[in-house]
Amino acid sequence: MQEFDHIQSLWQSHSVEVKISSEQMLQQAKKEVNAIRNKSLFNIIGMLLSFVAMAMLWLFYDFNSWVPQLGLTIFLSAIAVSTFMLYKSHQLLAKHDFTTDPNEFLNNLKQYQLSRFSLYSKLYWFYAFALSLGIVLYFFEILSYFDLWAQGLIVVLTFGWIIFCSTLVRKAVIKKEKERIALLIEKFERLGKQFKEL
């Protein structure tokens, strides 16, 4: 086992410097930036579609009580705030062309990284709490139409899904996005160094 650990440590300590042209690196960075921009835009579109779907439910369903309406209001408010925050972070990448000023874009990319961290750490818990509260208030009237076993199943599945997304999915998304943005920042820093050398 010690031999394996020794071989592994040698392998990890051995680094090969790969020379890549600034043009190739710029093409890779452009591809990755476009992928991040598109993903961010699809997140915003998805949130807007969910907002419209919930608003339609509110407009076309006749509630007997004000409690489900309050729940939907909280639900819609949480979606609206989250969509606005997604839009603000998207603007950090979308409003600048990285080919004109890579240093300014690098600063915006670092701000984007911080805004995404804030979104997934602080704002996410506000979002999850508001959605949970909205769902509880919405279920106040809606669940009365179902049998007791169906009520239990709906509640368990709904909150099980929220817990699943809050733990496993959220952590996986944070890790993947953190690595992707850190790699992109590293590429832009190397690009900046290569342009200074020219």
TrEMBL record:
InterPro entries according to UniProt: MFS_trans_sf
Transmembrane segments: 40-60, 66-87, 123-142, 148-169
Top-level division of the source organism's lineage: Bacteria
Keywords assigned by UniProt, alphabetized: Membrane, Transmembrane, Transmembrane helix
Name of the protein in its database record: Uncharacterized protein
Source species of the chain: Pedobacter hiemivivus
